[in-house]
Design a protein that fits this description.
Rossmann fold, alpha/beta, about 325 residues, six-stranded antiparallel beta sheet, 9 helices, elongated, 2 domains, Methionyl-tRNA Fmet Formyltransferase, Chain A, domain 2
Length: about 325
């Protein structure tokens, strides 16, 4: 509970996870080892990725049905509610009446600099190499409540794709979560840190299919970070190619290359050199890109069918749509 600028628990016996994370089973195991009961509440969409053997309930709305369920099942003095990417909109009355003013959120980034969604993609685009594991109190502002506990670390330089970032996050969070809960069990008092309102950024959610279109006029390094942001486990950054065998393709496994002659901006997207397993593509600046994967719409790598003289391009209308379309998710999935 939060009291006098501190967060602590006198008798933690039960934890309710709201939403879902890819390593939620590991968190349940940690709770079990610490003799804490675990319940999961999520919406229809997030529940699809939850192991049915876990103690799990589906509620798509914060309504009286959920309120009554919580009040009947959980003791307000011994239960902590933790949001793990939950897609509910928490208002003051929900925080007070549903969750007994004991609702916190896990955020895998620095606050207030990286509020919002978009997962790793925004941070890869920015080349952000600092990891942060963080719990904060939920209030009515998006990711705006006081910070309870946080742990910074550097992201290893070999970690590039969202998949690799997520694997790193899971390892870090498992340790961070375990230590946090152990401290709560020992009645440790966390000093709350209020977030400064006059700094920080908000990033909306992204969906690769709609937002992942490559603008070939970008600087080579910005192109690299953008392509990396939609690499595994996603389908890849989208573009067209003026090759009669293909139309839309997906680009992965890119790196910046400086070994060719200087380019002219008109050359951007042009395939300058071909190897059996990679190609060199011109950019608007002095660097090129080496690409190792160009996937067709079936996900097959067709790099060997891309020819020198072919050009990658993205139409203005798809780039405008990618920037103008805002993505929203709710408990049932992508909001259309």
């Amino acid at each position: 509970m939060s009291q006098n600028d501190y967060f602590n628990f006198n008798n933690l016996k039960s934890i309710v996870f709201l939403g879902n994370l890819s390593n939620i089973e590991e968190l349940v195991k940690i709770n079990k080892k610490l003799k804490i009961n675990t319940t999961i509440i999520s919406g229809t969409d997030q529940s699809k990725q939850i192991n049915p053997r876990l103690n799990h309930y589906i509620f798509n709305k914060l309504d009286n049905k959920l309120k009554n369920f919580i009040k009947k099942k959980f003791d307000p003095d011994t239960t902590l509610f933790i949001s793990l990417g939950a897609r509910y909109i928490f208002k003051k009355e929900h925080i007070n009446d549903f969750f007994f003013n004991k609702l916190i959120n896990y955020h895998a980034a620095r606050l207030p600099f990286d509020a919002g969604g978009g997962g790793w993609s925004w941070r890869i685009m920015k080349n952000d190499r600092i990891d942060n594991q963080l719990f904060h109190i939920i209030d009515e502002k998006i990711d705006g409540g006081p910070i309870i506990d946080a742990q910074l670390s550097l992201i290893p330089k070999n970690i590039i794709t969202p998949k690799e970032f997520e694997e790193f996050r899971k390892k870090k969070f498992k340790i961070f979560y375990s230590n946090f809960i152990k401290k709560l069990q020992k009645k440790f008092k966390f000093k709350l840190v209020n977030q400064l309102e006059y700094i920080g950024n908000y990033y909306p959610r992204l969906k690769t299919k709609y937002n992942g279109w490559i603008d070939w006029n970008l600087d080579a390094h910005d192109l690299l970070y953008f392509i990396n942001a939609f690499d595994d486990p996603f389908e890849g950054a989208s573009t067209f190619v003026n090759n009669k065998n293909f139309k839309k393709v997906f680009v992965k496994k890119a790196q910046v290359h400086g070994g060719e002659q200087l380019n002219h901006p008109y050359m951007t997207g042009l395939v300058l050199k071909k190897n059996k397993s990679w190609i060199i593509v011109a950019t608007a600046g002095k660097y090129c890109l080496i690409l190792e994967e160009v996937l067709d719409q079936k996900g097959k790598n067709v790099i060997n069918k891309i020819n020198v003289g072919d050009r990658f391009f993205s139409k203005k209308e798809v780039l405008d749509k990618a920037k103008s379309l805002r993505i929203f998710y709710n408990t049932k999935g992508l909001k259309k």
